[in-house]
Amino acid sequence: MAGSRLPTDPPGLHQQRSLVRLAQLDAVPSRAEVSEPHHWWRANAAYVARAGSYRPLDGWLALGFWVFYMALLWIQGSLLASGLPWVGATPHGLTVVGPGVVIELGVIALILRCRRQGLSDLGLHRKNAGRSALWGLGLGAAAIAGAAIVPTVIHGADFYSPSFIAGQAVWFLLWVAVPEEVVFRGFIMSRLTGFMGRVAGPIVAAVLFGLSHLPFQLAISGLSLGDFLAQNYTMLLIPTVWGLLYGFFYAKLDNLLGPIIIHALCDLASMGISPAAF
C-alpha cells in the first residue's frame, strides 16, 4: 500500500551524516592526547622514557661501576693517608683526586660508547638547562644563607677570605659536584630507575651515594669500620638525604645542570665559607 511506505532520504544525505560523525569523532581527544593532571612530584616524561629504555644490562653495569668506584675511592684515601711526598704536593691532594676523577669519568665514557649512548644519557643536554640552572642557583643560595651566613652572623664569627671562598667554590664544582652528579644521578640513578622502577631506583641510588662517602674517609681516618661508623654515621645519612633531593630535581627537570649547581653550593656552604657553618 502506498500509505505504508516510509519517506526516503534525499540522495547523498546518508553520506553527509557519516562525514559529520567522523568529524565529531576526530574532534574528541584520545586518552593518550588528554594530558594528565600536573603534579609537582611527577618525573619529567622525557626522563621516564629514557630510563625505561635501558635494559637490565645497563642496570647491572651501573651496579658494577659503583663497586669499581668504591674501590677507587679506597685507593685514593689510602694514598692520601700514606704520607708520600708527592701526595701532598698540591692542595686538596689533587695529585690523587684528579687522576681518580679522570679514571671514573673515562670508564663511564667507555661504557657509553660500548652501549651506543651519548651525553644526553647522562642528563647533559640543552633541554631545560636554563630552568634547571635557576633552580640550582636558587636552592644553593638558600643553603648558603641558612647553613653558612646566618650561623656566622649569629655567632659573631668571621668569614673566610674571598679568595679562599672562590678557590673552594671552584674545587667543589669541578672536582666534587660534576663527577659525583655524573656518576650517581646521570649514570647510576637513571639506569637503576629503568632496572628497579621509578621508586626503588632513585632510593637505591641515593643509598649508594651515601655509602660512597665511606671508603675514602675510612681510609684516611685509620679507624676500624665499627669505630668510624660509631663516630661518623651522619656522614652516610646526610649525603643519602641529599642524594634523594638531587635525584628528585634531576628526574623532575631531566637536566643535570641544576643538581650540579645545588651540590657544589651546598658543599661550599658547609665547608667553604665560614668555620661556623653547619
Overview of the molecule:
The chain has 278 residues and is mostly helical. It has one domain (44-271). Helices cover 71% and strands 0% of the residues. The chain contains eleven helices and no strands. α2 packs across α6 (162-196) and α3 (56-81) runs antiparallel to α6. The model is unreliable at 1-7 and 20-37 (pLDDT under 50).
Low-confidence stretches: 1-7, 20-37
Mean pLDDT, all residues: 87
Give helix % range. over 70%
Overall morphology: globular
- Measured distance between first and last alpha carbons: 100 Å
Give the number of DSSP strands.
0
Derived from helix and strand composition plus strand pairing, the structural class reads mainly alpha
Count of helix runs: 11
Major β-sheet, in short?
none
What's the number of structural domains? 1
| Beta-strand content estimate | under 5%
What is the H-and-E element order? HHHHHHHHHHH
- Rg, Å, rounded: 27 Å
Features:
globular; 0% strand; single chain; 11 helices; disordered N terminus; 71% helix; 278 residues; mainly alpha
